[in-house]
Amino acid sequence: MATDGSPEATLALQTANRLLNSVDRDLDLLCVAPKVRAKDGVPAGGNGYEKRILGEITQMLEQARAHLPSNAGVIRLLARMGSPAGVIVARTDDYDLTVIGPRGRGTPGEGGLGPVASRVVEHAQTPVLVARQLRSPESLRVLIAVDGSSASLRAIETLRSLFDLSSAEVCLMYVAETPWIEFGLEEDWITYSEEDKEQSESGVLEKELIREGDAIMERARALLRPLALSISTRTEEGNPANEILSEAERGQYDLVVVGATGSRDLKHRMLGSVSSKIAWDASCSVLMAREPE
Length: 293
What we know:
The protein is an alpha/beta fold. It folds into 2 domains: 7-113, 3-Layer(aba) Sandwich (Rossmann fold); 140-290, Rossmann fold (3-Layer(aba) Sandwich), CATH 3.40.50. The protein has 9 helices and 9 strands. The protein has a 7-stranded mixed sheet with strand order 3-4-9-8-5-6-7, sandwiched between helices. Strands 1-2 form a two-stranded parallel ribbon. Helix 3 (84-91) packs parallel to helix 4 (115-123) and helix 8 packs parallel to helix 9. The longest helix is centred in the last third of the chain and has 24 residues, at 201-224.
């Protein structure tokens, strides 16, 4: 769990503590202070700067720990110096999950991701939780975006193994990415009648995508079945990121779970951007798992 002492970072820690399973949990609280460059003949870290700043961030870590309950698990405090994003990303491979707030100290504006969170989301190879304010302190609504990729399955495995879903309502959502099948048609797709669409090659392909989505959601449901959760399903057509974000807001979800695919070809690069857009634009927490290398 990364913190810089800001209110957003504190809220992220509290949200993560609510979401995560407390059984056999070990937490490292990490605070990174940037190093200073040499200036006016004074070496970087001169005049006791490094000792003073490490003392200050250790105090930040103590304050962060005070916001976590006594049953939060084993907690270690890690004070480091360097590039905050670089240090966090370099350490992510050592953890099952990295928790970060969407915006840090000194980041202007509202919404979106700050520069540190943005780099962590983009470069971390292990699961990342961008933790935002929960809508309800008691119940939990979880939206799981599934597409059949190994990244999507990894995200579900992370959710199942690390998160407390005892009071959760879960919705599995599949979005058939259909707009691209309109390319190359002699006239606009929207002018087609329903019968023309069904009989066209594109219409047949669209139906196949929907059937594929049903199989993908059943596979995801099987992974979650041992937890005896309340699970609903939803299938939409269109732009995946837009549809998922719309459903997250409409359904007042607390957490969106999404996989980030690789960049092996154009299609995967397009799909991979879905997770980044959701992490940026969602008003709730986002759990993102990248496709294993």
